[in-house]
Here is the input.
Amino acid sequence: MPESGQRQVLAFDFGLRRIGVAWGQEMLGSARPVSMIPARDGVPDWAAIEALLNEWRPDLVVVGLPLNMDGSESDLCARARKFGKRIHGRFHLPVDMMDERLSSVEAKEVALAAGGSSDFGRHGVDDLAAVLILESWFNDQRSRSSHLLPGGRCNHYD
Here is the structure.
């Protein structure tokens, strides 16, 4: 696997009806939407997930974790964690969970600002939410690496 800062990452915004997917390169710190995969009560089309993983060949997968505003875990968190564990188990890829609070709200604002439809049931923004999750993860990684001292030692601020 490439070293930190060099990884190519596929991110998922887990949902019960749709799962948004985004792709990004850690070095650039930016992401772009890839697709939205239909889900039935949170169960994705695993063949579609496998096809995406084969096409994009990520070094790492990031899955959004839908925490409550106070930081506590929502009911959906357990299902998102299970989704991440299944990706790890089925495809043997490392998976990071990333706080995704307000990513869907922000994605809707971005879509509306760009002149998109407000019918989010029909025209989802899950892929845009996955972009925001991944870009937040990139920022988090940069923040963590900025605490490193010469020689790879780490300042522990947390």
About this structure: The CA atoms of residues 48 and 83 lie 14 Å apart. The first strand starts at residue 8 and ends at 13. Residues 149-158 have pLDDT under 50 and may be disordered. DSSP finds four helices and six strands in the chain.
